[in-house]
Amino acid sequence: MNVAELIDILRDLDPETIVEMAIVAPVTEHSDDITVDQYEVEGVLPRDPADHDGESVVWLIGGESHDVDEFVDAIEGAGDNVQTGEYADVIDIDRGAEARKAIFGV
Predict the structure, then answer these.
(1) Is 80 helix (H, G, I), strand (E, B) or coil?
(2) Whole-model pTM?
(3) CA distances (Å), 89 to each of 8, 11, 79, 94, 104, in order?
(4) Which of 42, 83, 93, 99 could form a disulfide with 46 if both were Cys (CB 3.0 to 4.6 A apart)?
(5) How is the chain split among helix, strand and coil, in percent rounded to 5?
(6) What contacts 21, CB < 8 A, 6 or more positions away?
(7) How far apart are the C-alpha atoms of 4 and 1, rounded to whole Å?
(8) What is the mean pLDDT of the chain?
(9) For residues 32 and 6, what is the distance between their CA atoms, to the nearest angstrom?
(10) Would the pLDDT of 14 be above 80?
(11) 3-class DSSP state of 90
């Protein structure tokens, strides 16, 4: 989904509507069973296009409050790269911190 598609979907909703995300994942690697976790979206973090073959990408940030706080602290305080996700995507924390400042105003 791109930003234009998301805006189009959200356009007709009440501006006070809470935005949540549902994370759907398999219970185990070889199972047809799934688990669904839902979280409020607490922020948006633009990713550096260099990390995505030149494509513009944003992350919707949400999760358990303490986990989001730790993530934000890592972005603000770390000077090293952080490895995330099952695909071992590497985020440059310095670029992430700058993006966070622009989005969250901190």
Answers:
(1) coil
(2) 0.60
(3) 29, 32, 17, 15, 23
(4) 99
(5) 35, 35, 30
(6) 38, 39, 41, 60, 62
(7) 8
(8) 77
(9) 29
(10) yes
(11) strand
Report the amino acid identity of residue 8.
D
Residue 24 has pLDDT above 80, yes or no: yes
Please spell the DSSP secondary structure of 48-60, one letter per residue. Answer: PGGGGTT--EEEE
pLDDT of residue 56: 86
Residue 17 CA: distances (Å) to CA of 12, 20, 40, 41, 61:
11, 10, 11, 12, 17
Partnered with residue 23 across adjacent β-strands are 37
- Report whether pLDDT(78) > 70: no
Buried b (16+ CB within 10 A) or exposed e, 29-68: eeeeeeeeeebeebeebbbeeeeeeeeeeeeebbbeeeeb
Whether the per-residue pLDDT at 4 is higher than 60: the answer is: yes
Q: Of the given ranges (13-27, 45-59, 77-91), which has the lowest mean pLDDT?
A: 77-91
Q: What's the rounded Cα separation, in Å, for the pair 50 and 44? A: 18
